[in-house]
Amino acid sequence: MSATLSGGAVTLVCLITLGLSVFALRLARRTSDFYVAGRSVTPARNAAAIGGEYLSAASFLGVAGLIYDQGVDALWYPIGYTVGYLVLLVLVAAPLRRSGAYTLPDFAEARLESRFVRHLSSALVVLIGWFYLVPQFQGASFTLGLLTGASGWVGAFIVMVVVMLAVAAGGMRSITLVQAVQYWLKLTALAVPAGMILAAWWVTGGPAPEVSDAWALPLTGRSPDEHHLYRTFSLIVALALGTTGLPHVVVRYYTNPDGSAARRTTVRVLVLLGLFYVVTIVYGVLGRAYLPVLGEGQRADTIVLRLPAEVLPGLGSEVLTAALAGGAFAAFLSTSSGLTVAVTGVLNQDLVRPAMARITRGDHSEVTGFRVSAVLAVVVPYAVSRVFPEVPLATLVSLAFIVAASTFFPLLALGVWWPGLSVQGAAAGLVTGAVLAVGAVSVTVLADAPTGWPAALLAQPAAWTVPLAALVMVTVSRATPRGIPASARRTLVRLHTPEEITTASTQPVTRGRPGPPA
Amino acid sequence: MTEPAPRHTQRVRVTASRRGAAAARRRPMATALVEQTEVGELYLGGLLRAQLRLALAIVGSGAAILLGLPLLFALVPETRELRLGWVPVPWLLLGVLIYPAVVAAAIFYTRRSERTERRFADVVGGTSER
Fold first, then answer.
1. What is the pTM of this model?
2. Which has the closest alpha carbon to A354: B60, B35, B17, B96?
3. I need a surface site. Which of A70, A441, B82, B83 has the fewest CB within 10 A?
């Protein structure tokens, strides 16, 4: 195929990412710059950054692949990915920003005043982050393999190294800028080829999509004992609620200047995601027209990359394929770096910094710890991606959503709205949700799945794990009123009081940062 | 002040611990007033309830639509084959129209919640000003 052009596009995207990181490193000065971009990001840029971060391999390649493979029923995936932000907006966006914490574990600790719940949340952030990184690395590997014939480990290795360098160099500030650029890069790389393919199909009177009823009509074609309706429900629950608990999404909310900026950011995110996902449908549908059957052992995830060569002749198709390859790598890089920042922050605070303090007796810089953590954050999922079984990208990513929905969603929703949440309740709910979700997911991925209801319940567990985790949180909290932090009510006040009140009456001190010790 | 600062020939790194960042944030007067007086608590309870009601209304209607559509397709099989011209209606709904609907819901929510907060700020600001 068009190996040289595509390889060039991939190299270019990697170089742009690194270049922007180095450029932004000159702006990163304080520790808070490394974590949350000094809290000075405008809604427009922050929304593009969230979009850039969120649209991963699963969105760029996986959604079109699933639509190609499963038809109308796959449309629930992008809907779920998008609606998640509506849930996030109405339930937690502004309060989360007003909590003033940096990460999910920070929020858990500030809200519940418990080191234990903090550590539990940290472990979950790392788990979800790694779950989400594995498909990114797998996508990078097969993309590069398909386009340039590189062997299986190269693509993932390139992504790992670029992300590690970018994150370790500039932290979040650089990532915010990089992510915002990546969104527009991805949308252009997907939409322009889609428009040209569509035009070519129209002008040349290309073939009609060859589809069956099972593909074209919703909820058709699967056997009744697969419980298709239940699976659809449960998938919607997982994706819509899971977004709220994704560590790389939540961390981005701390970069908004205030609570209402957090809301405005989210509205823009919804627009940007909608634009993107509508375009992916073109690939799924026209894939059915030009490539009605894929060869033996070829992944449906590759349909986006294969389509141009089928529709257009010669150089045109090579240019489009190169653009799509670049966009796909932008997707791998941006999502991976967002996840890596989140995982790195947690690893640094809860693991690396305490360990380094013990080894060096406090004589080390905080930034060194951040960089050590960044390396740790990507090497582990890279290793896992080499041994993990091949599953469609969008399915693999939804596993991370299931775990997030079963753990962090109830914690955040109850933490923000219910003063009665106790330390024991939160901990019990987190453990219940994590054990059930991870258990169900592992059985599905690793073991030969049973059939009928057990198969459906294990493959799509969110519909029962999320309510169960929330129920455990509430019941245990009710039973342990002593575990309710004394300041719970005061914390809720802070989460829900608009900033205009807190800033208007105290002008002189609001801008003050704690100065260096005298 | 204290003794004059000694001359350093090397750069000195000054860092502050990031932990407890949430707790150390500003504690302005209006917030303190809201927390401590009964009137303030009453206002805040009202704000919380109004916001929660709005949030649940949005989540509820969203869930009704999202879970209702598959239910409709499952219970009334004819709806699966509806067409508008040559466009199949399920594709139109799930592929395109659902996105502007979500954006509209988000804009509606943002407007309403900001209005609730402004009203709250007016009331509390009025009582706390000197």
1. 0.87
2. B17
3. B83
